[in-house]
Structures are given as C-alpha cells and as structure tokens.
Design brief:
By secondary structure, the protein is mainly alpha-helical. It has one domain: Sodium/glucose cotransporter. 78% of the residues lie in helices and 0% in strands. It has 23 helices and no strands. Helix 3 crosses helix 16, helix 6 runs antiparallel to helix 7 and helix 7 packs antiparallel against helix 18. The protein is globular and about 70 Å long. The termini are far apart.
Amino acid sequence: MLIWFVIVYLMISIGIGLVAATRVHNTKDYAVAGRHLPLPVVMATVFATWFGAEAVFGVSATFVQEGLNGVAADPFGSSMCLIIAGFFFSTQLYKLNIITLGDFYRMRYNRSVEVLTTIAIVVSYLGWVAAQIKALGLIFNMITHGAISEEAGMILGTAIVLTYTTLGGMLSVAVLDFVQMIVVIGGLLYIGSIVSGMTGGVAPVIEHARQAGKLDFFPKGADVWVWITFLGGWVTMMLGSIPQQDVFQRITSAKSAKIALWGSLLGASVYFCFTFVPMFIAYSATLIDPAVYGKLVAEDSQRVLPTLVLEHTPLLAQAIFFGAVLSAIMSCSSATLLAPSVSFAENIVKGYMPHLTDKGFLRVMRFCLVGFAICVLLYALNSELSIFGMVESAYKITLAGAFIPLIFGAFWKRSTSQGALAAIVGGIGSWVLIEVLIGEASLIPPQLIGLAVSAVGMVAGSLLPQKIGGNPEKPQGYLHEHAARPHQH
C-alpha cells in the first residue's frame, strides 16, 4: 500500500514540473527561471539547496554516531555558506545579469580561468548529486521491502528527476521546491510529533543526548591539530560551497537583489533550524529500541531513520514521511543536476559554438544535463562512500581552486588573470599532492593547505610582472558597466 502512495506522489510531482516546463522559452528561463521569482519561492529554493539526502539521512546518522561535533560541516557550515553567499551574490553579482559563475570568471579574468574554474565546479558536483541518487535508491529499496534493489532504485530515481528537470530547468525546480518545502516541513514535523510521543516528549531525548555527550559541539582538549581538523570540515563546507552554481542560481533567480538577499537569509535560517528535526527523530530510535537500533547504528546508520518510521509508525505516517523525504531529495537533486550542466554548456561548450542560436543553445544545455546525469549515476553505483561522506568531500576542490579567484576578483581590484591562474593551479595542485602523498595522516587538512597556497598564488601572481594569462587587469568599474548590458547568447 505504501508504494502506491509514493507512486501517486511522484506522478503529481512530475506533473507539476512538466506544467512549469511549458513556461520555459529561452536559456534565461531555463538557467535562472527568468529572474522573476518572488520571496517565498526564493526562500524555498534556497532551503532546498541543502535539505536533501545528507540532511535527512547523512547528518542524522552522523549525529547519532558522533554528536554535534561530527556535524560541524552541515548544518553549521552549510548554513553560514548560504548567509555569506546571500550577501555576496546579491550585492556583488546580481547586478551583472549573468547566468553562471563561470561568466564572472571570464569577465573578471579570461577564458582560461573561466574553463578551469568551471571544470572544478562541475567535478565538485559528482559527489553531491551522487549522494542524492544514492538516497533515492535507499528509499525505493526500503519502501518495496527489497523488491527494488538499491542500484535499480538509483536508476529509477535518476530517470524521474531527469524527466522534469531536463524539460523545465530552473523554473520547474523552483516551483517544485516551493511545493515540496511545504510537504517536507509538514511531514517531518508530523513524524517528529509521533516519535516524541513514544519517547515521553522532546526533553527526555535531549537529556539523554546531553548525558551521552552528543551535544558537545567543540572538540575536547587543547590539541591544536584536533581543532584544525574540526575547523577544516567547517570551513570546507562554509567557503568551498560558495563558488557553486546551484547556490548562485537559486539566489540570483530572484526578481530583485533585495529579494535575493532576504530569500537567502530566511532560507538559510529555516534550513539550520529544521535540520535538527531528522537528528531528533533518528536519535529517538536509540531510546525506543536500544538493542535493535544500536546494532543498526554500527552496521549502517543511514537506515536508522527510515527503519524507525517503517517499524514504529502507522501507514499514513509512513506515506507522509517518505513523501517528505522524496520531496527533499528530488528538490535537491534536480537543482544540483541542473547547475553543473548549465555551467558546462555556458562556460565550456559555448566557447566552441559561438554562433549557436538561443534555441539551439537551450538544446545543448539539455543534452549536457542528460550526460551529467549518466556520469553521476555511474559514480553513485560504484562509490562505497556514505551519503554524508560524499557530500563532505565534494567541495574540497572548489575551496582549493575556485574560492580565492571569486572573492579576490570581486573585492581586490589588483587581482589579475595571472594571479587567478596561479591560485587555481597552486591551490588544486597542492591539495591533490597532499591528498595523494599523505592523505588523512596530514596534520592540517589538505584542502586548507590548498586554500592557503591559492591565496598566496593569487597575491604573488597579481603583483609580479604579468607574463601569462592576458588581460592583466580589467579597468576599474568594468563589471559595473557590464551590469547595464543584457546577457547575450
């Protein structure tokens, strides 16, 4: 019976997405929803940026095992990312009237910087989107009691999300985000109320978690290297996620810079607060049946939350829960499939097809979306990382290679193409080198070393005589002058 509820819900979601797709007429509609989204929709779509598989399954499972200290990256780092990005994108990039972050890198530096940073951004999405696909496989496997394998569930989930995203782009994503956010919040709060009834209320769960040390956020002891590792995870998510196309798309799809700012702030706040609901539900399982769920935590902690719902709640609650979870994951996966595909088409493919019409370029974007979805599916099917692990490792490359050129390009007038190239090559090169040679044994997280090298490369490369890169420095006011011109395709 549960599976039929899920099927009906999926059909309704696909229908809404396809209806929204009928309003897509050009690449701007497809990439940034025509830049006319109102505040409630922007808030919903910013919330959906992060509230996906990792928030429901990954973060809750990690909290059950490691407590708040283990989830410093998400939701703490990710929420700060959305707040910082909201201020940055709404004040610095919104007025440029661009559709990708790669456009900024090209305008501020040159074509080489545009291509390199776009590649880094696209690669970073493999882990993130794969986590969503893996979660879809897990859900289909559980609601069918094993009739659909996790692998088959991943394929099915990818096909469903791809259907409406390919046709509707960001417009379909935004409309569904708004609808699905309502389902997510209502559904999980309902499940939380049922679970709290089983535990005698919220207070006993919080007290148990406190006594077990699960509410200790900061590392214990004065070991500086432990603190550096802790901060490394936090900074990676907080800063490495800023140069991301999906965050940029969602915020700059607003119909004004003011709405972009407030939408990101409100969306981030709702996300941060609401992420604790799945944590509460998952941790409650260890009180409801310590023997069963204690064993499950050790074997596969990602299954704690869905198993609790399947075994201890009525059918209606199960339908609401899995509907809410599917809503969250579909919202997140659709946008994160779209973002790198649009970036790849706009900032790499388009350079080799300069005379393509807008309608032709729209087809290219859709082809790129299908191609990227296939790559993600293959990665998800073959990766042994957990959902949280996939997400946490996704943004190391953008932290090391794309963050410094973005921030320095916006705020430091003397930054040059040579400096940006040095930042990208030095940052990513040093990060990869340390990951390969030292790995987890490194006292300082490799991505933080990459970030530091990237900053040094930017400063040194910009101040030294300009030998490579071309376009050593755009004239003052260049970006603001460009803002007055419409984006051309």
